[in-house]
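ok here's ABC transporter ATP-binding protein:
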Amino acid sequence: MSPILEVDGLTMRFGGLTAVDGLSFSVAEGVIHGLIGPNGAGKTTTFNAISGFYRPSGGEIRLRGQVISGQPMHEVARRGLVRTFQHSTLFAELTVLENAVVGTHMVHRPNLLAAVTGSDRAARAEARERARAALDFFGLAGQENERAGDLAHGHQRALGMAVAYAAGPQIVLLDEPFTGMNPEETRAMMVLMEKLRDSGVTILIVEHDMHAIMGLCERITCMSFGKLLAEGAPREIREHPDVIEAYLGGTHHAA
Ligand SMILES: Nc1ncnc2c1ncn2[C@@H]1O[C@H](COP(=O)(O)OP(=O)(O)OP(=O)(O)O)[C@@H](O)[C@H]1O
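and the structure:
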Protein backbone atom coordinates (compact mmCIF):
# COMPACT_ATOMS: atom_id res chain seq x y z
CA MET A 1 0.00 0.00 0.00
CA SER A 2 1.32 3.49 -0.80
CA PRO A 3 2.30 5.53 2.24
CA ILE A 4 -0.15 8.03 3.68
CA LEU A 5 2.69 10.29 4.84
CA GLU A 6 6.11 10.87 3.29
CA VAL A 7 8.86 12.93 4.90
CA ASP A 8 11.44 13.54 2.20
CA GLY A 9 14.79 15.14 3.01
CA LEU A 10 13.29 17.29 5.80
CA THR A 11 15.71 19.89 7.15
CA MET A 12 15.00 22.40 9.94
CA ARG A 13 17.56 25.00 10.92
CA PHE A 14 17.32 27.42 13.83
CA GLY A 15 20.04 29.99 13.23
CA GLY A 16 23.27 28.01 13.13
CA LEU A 17 21.71 24.83 14.60
CA THR A 18 20.43 22.10 12.32
CA ALA A 19 17.76 20.35 14.41
CA VAL A 20 16.59 18.06 11.60
CA ASP A 21 19.05 17.17 8.89
CA GLY A 22 17.81 15.59 5.66
CA LEU A 23 15.38 13.22 7.39
CA SER A 24 13.38 10.84 5.20
CA PHE A 25 10.83 8.24 6.26
CA SER A 26 7.32 7.25 5.36
CA VAL A 27 4.27 6.05 7.25
CA ALA A 28 2.05 3.29 5.84
CA GLU A 29 -1.68 3.76 6.04
CA GLY A 30 -3.56 2.15 8.93
CA VAL A 31 -0.60 1.53 11.24
CA ILE A 32 0.75 2.89 14.50
CA HIS A 33 4.22 4.21 13.63
CA GLY A 34 6.67 5.32 16.31
CA LEU A 35 9.24 8.11 16.06
CA ILE A 36 11.88 7.69 18.77
CA GLY A 37 15.35 8.95 19.62
CA PRO A 38 17.35 10.34 22.53
CA ASN A 39 16.59 13.80 23.97
CA GLY A 40 17.27 16.54 21.47
CA ALA A 41 17.23 14.15 18.47
CA GLY A 42 14.74 16.39 16.64
CA LYS A 43 11.46 14.51 17.11
CA THR A 44 9.33 17.44 18.25
CA THR A 45 10.82 19.65 15.57
CA THR A 46 9.91 16.99 13.00
CA PHE A 47 6.34 16.93 14.35
CA ASN A 48 6.15 20.70 14.19
CA ALA A 49 7.31 20.70 10.58
CA ILE A 50 4.92 17.91 9.54
CA SER A 51 1.89 19.55 11.17
CA GLY A 52 2.52 22.97 9.63
CA PHE A 53 3.67 24.67 12.83
CA TYR A 54 7.08 25.29 11.22
CA ARG A 55 7.95 25.93 7.59
CA PRO A 56 10.80 23.52 6.75
CA SER A 57 14.19 24.97 5.82
CA GLY A 58 14.45 22.20 3.22
CA GLY A 59 12.82 19.02 1.93
CA GLU A 60 9.23 18.10 1.33
CA ILE A 61 6.36 16.52 3.25
CA ARG A 62 3.57 14.78 1.36
CA LEU A 63 0.17 13.59 2.54
CA ARG A 64 -1.29 11.03 0.14
CA GLY A 65 1.20 12.26 -2.46
CA GLN A 66 0.23 15.92 -2.11
CA VAL A 67 2.78 18.40 -0.81
CA ILE A 68 1.74 19.86 2.56
CA SER A 69 5.04 21.38 3.69
CA GLY A 70 4.80 25.16 3.89
CA GLN A 71 1.01 25.02 4.42
CA PRO A 72 -0.40 26.51 7.63
CA MET A 73 -1.61 24.18 10.38
CA HIS A 74 -5.33 24.67 9.74
CA GLU A 75 -4.85 23.80 6.06
CA VAL A 76 -2.84 20.70 6.97
CA ALA A 77 -5.64 19.76 9.42
CA ARG A 78 -8.27 20.36 6.73
CA ARG A 79 -6.42 17.89 4.51
CA GLY A 80 -6.61 15.25 7.23
CA LEU A 81 -3.48 15.52 9.40
CA VAL A 82 -4.02 16.62 13.01
CA ARG A 83 -1.63 16.66 15.96
CA THR A 84 -1.93 16.64 19.72
CA PHE A 85 0.44 18.53 21.97
CA GLN A 86 2.53 17.21 24.85
CA HIS A 87 0.31 19.00 27.37
CA SER A 88 -2.86 18.38 25.56
CA THR A 89 -5.80 19.98 27.35
CA LEU A 90 -6.75 22.82 25.09
CA PHE A 91 -8.97 24.97 27.26
CA ALA A 92 -9.04 24.05 30.94
CA GLU A 93 -11.86 26.51 31.68
CA LEU A 94 -14.18 25.12 28.99
CA THR A 95 -16.27 21.99 29.44
CA VAL A 96 -15.25 18.65 28.00
CA LEU A 97 -17.90 19.01 25.29
CA GLU A 98 -16.84 22.54 24.40
CA ASN A 99 -13.25 21.37 23.98
CA ALA A 100 -14.38 18.63 21.60
CA VAL A 101 -16.50 21.16 19.66
CA VAL A 102 -13.37 23.26 19.18
CA GLY A 103 -11.77 20.12 17.69
CA THR A 104 -14.50 19.86 15.05
CA HIS A 105 -13.85 23.46 14.05
CA MET A 106 -10.16 22.82 13.44
CA VAL A 107 -11.19 21.64 10.00
CA HIS A 108 -14.81 22.55 9.42
CA ARG A 109 -14.62 26.19 10.41
CA PRO A 110 -11.39 27.80 11.48
CA ASN A 111 -13.13 30.59 13.39
CA LEU A 112 -12.61 29.75 17.08
CA LEU A 113 -14.95 32.44 18.32
CA ALA A 114 -17.76 31.14 16.16
CA ALA A 115 -16.89 27.64 17.37
CA VAL A 116 -17.44 28.58 20.98
CA THR A 117 -20.30 31.04 20.63
CA GLY A 118 -21.95 29.06 17.81
CA SER A 119 -23.29 31.79 15.58
CA ASP A 120 -24.84 29.37 13.13
CA ARG A 121 -27.45 27.00 14.55
CA ALA A 122 -27.35 24.08 12.08
CA ALA A 123 -23.57 24.03 11.94
CA ARG A 124 -23.47 24.19 15.72
CA ALA A 125 -25.80 21.22 16.13
CA GLU A 126 -23.74 19.22 13.65
CA ALA A 127 -20.50 20.13 15.38
CA ARG A 128 -21.95 19.07 18.74
CA GLU A 129 -23.00 15.76 17.29
CA ARG A 130 -19.50 15.12 15.94
CA ALA A 131 -18.00 16.24 19.25
CA ARG A 132 -20.30 13.90 21.22
CA ALA A 133 -19.40 10.99 18.96
CA ALA A 134 -15.71 11.70 19.58
CA LEU A 135 -16.23 11.82 23.36
CA ASP A 136 -18.20 8.60 23.21
CA PHE A 137 -15.39 6.96 21.21
CA PHE A 138 -12.87 7.82 23.94
CA GLY A 139 -15.11 6.87 26.86
CA LEU A 140 -15.83 10.44 27.98
CA ALA A 141 -19.55 10.55 27.21
CA GLY A 142 -20.51 10.83 30.87
CA GLN A 143 -18.26 13.82 31.49
CA GLU A 144 -19.40 16.25 28.81
CA ASN A 145 -20.32 19.01 31.22
CA GLU A 146 -17.31 18.80 33.50
CA ARG A 147 -14.66 21.49 33.32
CA ALA A 148 -11.79 20.04 31.27
CA GLY A 149 -9.25 21.20 33.85
CA ASP A 150 -11.00 19.14 36.55
CA LEU A 151 -10.63 15.81 34.76
CA ALA A 152 -8.19 13.20 36.05
CA HIS A 153 -4.88 13.24 34.19
CA GLY A 154 -5.63 10.14 32.12
CA HIS A 155 -9.01 11.54 31.10
CA GLN A 156 -7.42 14.85 30.10
CA ARG A 157 -5.14 12.90 27.79
CA ALA A 158 -8.11 10.98 26.38
CA LEU A 159 -9.82 14.34 25.81
CA GLY A 160 -6.77 15.56 23.89
CA MET A 161 -7.21 12.56 21.58
CA ALA A 162 -10.98 13.13 21.36
CA VAL A 163 -10.39 16.75 20.32
CA ALA A 164 -8.07 15.57 17.54
CA TYR A 165 -10.50 12.80 16.54
CA ALA A 166 -13.41 15.27 16.39
CA ALA A 167 -11.61 16.92 13.48
CA GLY A 168 -12.13 13.70 11.48
CA PRO A 169 -8.44 13.11 10.67
CA GLN A 170 -6.92 10.46 8.43
CA ILE A 171 -3.69 10.59 10.43
CA VAL A 172 -2.97 11.90 13.93
CA LEU A 173 0.40 12.85 15.38
CA LEU A 174 0.58 12.16 19.11
CA ASP A 175 3.32 13.96 21.05
CA GLU A 176 4.36 12.00 24.17
CA PRO A 177 0.84 10.87 25.07
CA PHE A 178 1.99 8.75 28.03
CA THR A 179 3.89 11.47 29.89
CA GLY A 180 2.94 11.55 33.57
CA MET A 181 0.69 8.50 33.34
CA ASN A 182 0.66 5.64 35.82
CA PRO A 183 0.81 2.08 34.40
CA GLU A 184 -2.96 1.69 34.53
CA GLU A 185 -3.56 4.95 32.64
CA THR A 186 -0.88 3.95 30.13
CA ARG A 187 -2.60 0.63 29.48
CA ALA A 188 -5.98 2.34 29.05
CA MET A 189 -4.44 4.84 26.63
CA MET A 190 -2.82 2.07 24.62
CA VAL A 191 -6.22 0.41 24.21
CA LEU A 192 -7.68 3.74 23.00
CA MET A 193 -4.91 4.10 20.45
CA GLU A 194 -5.49 0.61 19.11
CA LYS A 195 -9.19 1.42 18.88
CA LEU A 196 -8.35 4.60 16.98
CA ARG A 197 -6.06 2.70 14.60
CA ASP A 198 -8.71 -0.01 14.10
CA SER A 199 -11.23 2.70 13.15
CA GLY A 200 -9.00 3.52 10.18
CA VAL A 201 -6.96 6.43 11.55
CA THR A 202 -3.19 6.16 11.02
CA ILE A 203 -1.09 7.17 14.05
CA LEU A 204 2.40 8.63 14.24
CA ILE A 205 3.61 8.77 17.81
CA VAL A 206 6.59 10.37 19.57
CA GLU A 207 7.13 8.75 22.96
CA HIS A 208 9.90 7.99 25.44
CA ASP A 209 8.04 5.11 27.11
CA MET A 210 9.81 2.28 25.27
CA HIS A 211 7.60 -0.41 26.72
CA ALA A 212 4.50 1.31 25.31
CA ILE A 213 6.17 2.08 21.98
CA MET A 214 7.38 -1.49 21.51
CA GLY A 215 3.97 -2.87 22.42
CA LEU A 216 1.98 -0.54 20.18
CA CYS A 217 3.90 0.17 17.00
CA GLU A 218 4.01 -1.86 13.84
CA ARG A 219 7.00 0.17 12.68
CA ILE A 220 9.51 2.45 14.35
CA THR A 221 11.77 5.19 13.00
CA CYS A 222 14.69 6.10 15.24
CA MET A 223 16.49 9.39 14.81
CA SER A 224 19.62 10.80 16.38
CA PHE A 225 21.17 14.26 16.00
CA GLY A 226 18.50 15.21 13.47
CA LYS A 227 19.17 12.27 11.15
CA LEU A 228 17.61 8.89 10.50
CA LEU A 229 19.42 6.27 12.55
CA ALA A 230 17.39 3.12 11.98
CA GLU A 231 13.97 1.95 10.92
CA GLY A 232 12.16 -1.35 11.34
CA ALA A 233 9.81 -3.51 13.36
CA PRO A 234 10.02 -3.15 17.17
CA ARG A 235 12.25 -6.18 17.59
CA GLU A 236 14.71 -5.00 14.96
CA ILE A 237 14.88 -1.57 16.60
CA ARG A 238 15.29 -2.98 20.11
CA GLU A 239 18.21 -5.09 18.97
CA HIS A 240 19.77 -2.56 16.59
CA PRO A 241 23.36 -1.80 17.72
CA ASP A 242 23.20 1.85 16.56
CA VAL A 243 19.97 2.43 18.48
CA ILE A 244 21.37 0.86 21.64
CA GLU A 245 24.52 2.94 21.27
CA ALA A 246 22.54 6.17 20.70
CA TYR A 247 20.50 5.66 23.86
CA LEU A 248 23.33 4.46 26.07
CA GLY A 249 25.67 7.14 24.77
CA GLY A 250 23.16 9.92 25.39
CA THR A 251 21.49 11.28 28.47
CA HIS A 252 18.29 9.28 28.05
CA HIS A 253 18.16 5.56 28.67
CA ALA A 254 15.66 3.20 27.08
CA ALA A 255 13.41 1.60 29.69
N1 LIG B 1 12.59 26.84 18.31
C1 LIG B 1 13.85 26.43 18.45
N2 LIG B 1 14.90 27.30 18.40
C2 LIG B 1 16.17 26.87 18.53
N3 LIG B 1 16.53 25.60 18.74
C3 LIG B 1 15.54 24.69 18.82
C4 LIG B 1 14.16 25.05 18.68
N4 LIG B 1 13.40 23.93 18.81
C5 LIG B 1 14.27 22.93 19.00
N5 LIG B 1 15.55 23.39 19.02
C6 LIG B 1 16.76 22.54 19.18
O1 LIG B 1 16.69 21.53 18.19
C7 LIG B 1 17.18 20.29 18.71
C8 LIG B 1 16.09 19.22 18.57
O2 LIG B 1 15.05 19.53 19.52
P1 LIG B 1 13.69 18.70 19.60
O3 LIG B 1 12.88 19.33 20.68
O4 LIG B 1 13.10 18.60 18.26
O5 LIG B 1 14.22 17.27 20.06
P2 LIG B 1 13.38 16.05 20.64
O6 LIG B 1 13.93 14.83 19.99
O7 LIG B 1 11.93 16.30 20.50
O8 LIG B 1 13.81 16.09 22.17
P3 LIG B 1 12.99 15.62 23.49
O9 LIG B 1 12.93 14.13 23.42
O10 LIG B 1 13.89 16.08 24.59
O11 LIG B 1 11.66 16.28 23.46
C9 LIG B 1 17.62 20.57 20.12
O12 LIG B 1 19.01 20.82 20.11
C10 LIG B 1 16.84 21.80 20.51
O13 LIG B 1 17.52 22.55 21.48
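+1. The CA atoms of residues 51 and 182 lie 28 Å apart.
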